[in-house]
Design goal:
The protein is 55% helix and 7% strand.
Length: 554
């Protein structure tokens, strides 16, 4: 056994949960419902082993659990703890009241056990021998009276967690998402991931109102449910479901709007893929978040509603959300006006230089172009793409990103503040960002700051940095070559919209003693994206040497 391997205390999860409850009571007391407050009070009255058993139930997947499958050595008398949970209303055993969900209970058993159940009730084997598990479950439900079926669970009780909704909301308030759970504590304490040290006293509540929390939790659960429905593949049924749901969903709070937009976009795109274009158009109209307007224009044009498509194109041109919208609207307006049409990205690519390299590089095109510059042009280089610029952004703005006082952090396990990938990041932290950008006037001072941050924070969870040993030397070369005022313009653009503007950067960074060049590589079958064009044009505007290089094979 590795002597350095960390071992957690026997009841580590019990300690973690009490830490979570203390945080909730200090930050969210005003948002808790009466039932949630009661849950916390009554939970604390339980003895430690009973609390542990309840937490074990809470951390298992599903609603029903077979008691015989419980094996928790740290709980001294698990049956006694279960009886306490039942007596105190934290758990119950299945009874006739769960008749609507009895199929879920039977699904806890494997096929062999279900066959034994059928044999116990002397059901002829010929009636079920070839049935798959799900078919066998449905078959047994028709053959066995519910009362007799429930009685079979007496020797091996099936347990139901109570206070499930209250416990779910409390955990959701803490993490702010259904995508994180109590395992974050384990990851932190085992050292599998280092987190930036956050002063918990400065953490703010992630929700200002109860409605914000309820809206976001409701949308999180709806998103997962609708994803399961889409997997069944029936477009018309899905449309009936999502349209009815959207029509009857009350106004969503601002905090939950991003999740609402994603739900709408994913639902509408699925309907498009099912070729239900009229239905997709109706769903897209519930949001203006990209790419909703682009998709609506395309559908409107297919339907012959040219004027409506033209009007929406003009709306985008007035205020495009990102590069994809900007170039799409520009190109589509040209198309609608009947002019000779070639996409902006295609035009730029056709006007760019082309080199010829060996076809042996066809599965490593960027490597082939790097080899070309190193052998033919006697230059040095490395792959840069997104990681170089994201690392510069992350290291340069580290203290601003992880500033607890800026109210963007709500629990110790956040990788980033909740405004980082929105326009609010620049708006809310403009003064601090402007002050930080003044460091760009002095390259020596800039690199000292990057070096100190790199050495101090190496390996910590970051929303933008991919850590590796050669990252710092690469940044040093890059910064030594590029004008810092040009870097300023790129960093500001990233601050404005990090979600879109942290991707699409050129593939290679090439340099020699006299010059440098960012190179976007395109093989014969590859096309330029709108985001890549955005950076190539912006680099040209601010004085950063960059070009697109087309490749053809010998």
């Amino acid at each position: 056994m590795d002597e350095d391997k960390k071992v957690l205390p026997e009841k580590y999860y019990h300690t973690y949960y009490h830490d979570l409850l203390a945080f909730i009571e200090s930050k969210y007391q005003h948002l808790l419902s009466t039932a949630e407050k009661k849950f916390i009070v009554e939970f604390k009255k339980l003895d430690t082993d009973s609390q542990c058993l309840y937490l074990r139930l809470q951390n298992r997947k599903g609603k029903f659990f077979r008691f015989s499958k419980f094996s928790y050595p740290e709980i001294s008398d698990i049956r006694k703890s279960l009886q306490i949970l039942i007596k105190k209303g934290f758990s119950t055993v299945v009874d006739l009241e769960i008749y609507e969900e009895i199929a879920h209970v039977l699904n806890l058993y494997n096929r062999g056990e279900l066959v034994e159940l059928a044999q116990f009730f002397e059901i002829p084997k010929a009636g079920f021998s070839k049935l798959k598990k799900l078919e066998l479950v449905n078959f047994l439900l028709k053959q066995i009276p519910l009362e007799e079926l429930i009685a079979c669970f007496q020797d091996d009780p099936v347990i139901v967690q109570k206070y499930a909704e209250e416990a779910q909301m409390i955990q959701f308030l803490y993490f702010g998402t259904t995508n994180l759970d109590m395992s974050q504590f384990v990851i932190r304490d085992l050292g599998n991931m280092r987190f930036e040290a956050i002063n918990e006293e400065l953490l703010s509540a992630g929700f200002e109102t109860r409605k914000e929390a309820e809206d976001k939790l409701m949308l999180s659960l709806a998103y997962k449910f609708l994803r399961e429905v889409r997997q069944e593949g029936d477009g018309e049924d899905f449309y009936n479901l999502i349209s009815c749901w959207l029509e009857n969903t009350p106004e969503i709070s601002l905090a939950a709007q991003p999740l609402y937009d994603r739900l709408v976009l994913r639902s509408a795109r699925f309907l498009e893929q099912q070729r239900l274009f009229d239905e997709a158009l109706q769903i897209y109209e519930y949001t203006n978040k990209a790419p909703s307007r682009e998709r609506r224009i395309r559908i409107l044009h297919k339907r012959g509603e040219v004027e409506a498509a033209l009007n929406l194109c003009n709306v985008i041109m007035d205020c495009p959300e990102n590069a994809d919208e900007k170039y799409f609207a520009k190109d589509f307006l040209t198309k609608l006006e009947g002019k000779k049409f070639i996409k902006s990205t295609r035009r730029f690519q056709k006007q760019s230089d082309t080199i010829t390299i060996s076809s042996s590089w066809q599965y490593q095109v960027e490597m082939g172009v790097l080899d070309y510059y190193m052998t033919e042009k006697k230059m040095q280089g490395f792959f840069s793409e997104n990681f170089l610029w994201r690392a510069l952004f992350g290291l340069f703005f580290w203290d601003i990103i992880f500033d607890e006082a800026a109210t963007g952090f709500h629990n110790p396990f956040q990788r980033s503040p909740d405004d980082l990938f929105t326009s609010d990041f620049l708006i809310g932290r403009k003064e601090a960002i402007e002050e930080k950008l003044s460091l760009l006037k002095n390259k020596k001072q800039l690199f000292e700051q990057l070096t100190n941050t790199y050495n101090e924070k190496y390996g910590m969870a970051s929303p933008v940095i991919s850590w590796f040993e050669d990252l710092l030397p690469m940044l040093q070369i890059f910064i030594s070559k590029v004008d810092t005022m040009a870097l300023r313009e790129v960093l500001i653009s990233m601050c404005e919209n990090l979600r879109d503007n942290s991707r699409g950067f050129p593939d290679l960074f090439i340099w020699d003693a006299n010059t440098y060049l960012f190179v976007e590589v395109k093989s014969p079958n590859d096309t330029l994206s709108a985001q890549q064009l955005h950076w190539l044009e912006l680099f040209n505007e601010v004085g950063i040497n960059a070009q697109l290089m087309n490749v053809q094979w010998k």
